[in-house]
Amino acid sequence: MSSSKRVIVNTLAQNIRSLLNIGMSLYSARIVLDALGESDYGIFSLVGGVISMLGFITNAMVVSTQRHLSFLYGKGDNDGVHKMFSSGLLLHYLWGILLVLLFVLVRPLVFNSGILNIEASRHVVANSVYLILVISLFVSFITAPFRALFIARENIVFISIVDVIDGALKLGLVFTLYQIPSDRLVVYALIVTGIAVFNLVALAGYGIFKYSECCLIPRRFDTKMMRQMSSFAGWTIYSTGCIVGRTQGLAVVLNHFFGEVINSAYGIAIQVTGAV
């Protein structure tokens, strides 16, 4: 495919994906709110927001990995591409494990210090949701280098297909919440994590099938390349971290003074803003 046609196809794929996912995400938010109730939806938005305060590192690493891969593709350095992807994948594994350990260690501080204003009867459930979403964050972190590979390869069409399926799964599965007699909040957290696993399997599986440099276990890595990616990601982490800290920090402040219900409203507002 010529460069001009690829630009047109990728642009159309992104626009169609955006339109479909906006509609599905906003409608699924309505269903989830109705199924969980205001209080539980607020707990999910709050706990998920606390975790996403460090989850923004994922996006920074995607940008860094994609940038370095694109540079090597442009040079035609196939050997460097193999080393760069393996180095990026290893870096994501290490960062992902560190983030999981960090979130597990700070969990008592988050729930027992009075920072979050959650009803005592929902503390056990909130803790369970917290741990499930930590697993989801780790899976998303491992997915990041594969997403970066597809962007660097300019295969936006496949990413768009996976993202649309992601949105359709979320919309379809949230309807099952009405059939769940047990705690729906935990089930919804499991649904979110399960869809994150689907994204990893889809991108990694097709990537390994399609591109020789793609792998699940780092084969050839270079510490110099890992330092370069970490250094480049640092500036993105700083700028993105400021934005996320402002957004999710406000969620914690609102919760501290007004409780879970206002987090439900704030979570919907953030979702609508993000969709637009």
SSE order and pairing:
Elements: H1 3-36, H2 38-75, H3 78-112, H4 123-152, H5 156-174, H6 184-210, H7 223-258, H8 260-275
Helix pairs in contact: 1-2, 1-5, 1-8, 2-3, 2-4, 2-7, 2-8, 3-4, 3-7, 4-6, 5-6, 7-8
Description:
This protein is mainly α and 276 residues long. The protein has one domain. Helices cover 85% and strands 0% of the residues. The protein has helices at 3-36, 38-75, 78-112, 123-152, 156-174, 184-210, 223-258, 260-275. The longest helix has 38 residues, at 38-75. It is globular, with a radius of gyration of 20 Å. The model has no long low-confidence stretch (mean pLDDT 83).
Tag the structure with descriptive keywords:
mainly alpha, 276 residues
Number of domains: 1
> Percent helix among the residues?
over 70%
Please state the average pLDDT score: 83
Shape: globular
The number of E-state strands comes to 0
Over the alpha carbons, how many angstroms does the gyration radius reach? 20 Å
Q: Structural class, judged by helices and strands? A: mainly alpha
* Count of helical regions: 8
List the helices and strands in order: HHHHHHHH
Unreliable spans: none
Largest sheet: none
What fraction strand? Answer: under 5%
Report the end-to-end length measured between terminal Cα atoms: 31 Å
In short:
This protein is mainly alpha-helical and 276 residues long. It has one domain.
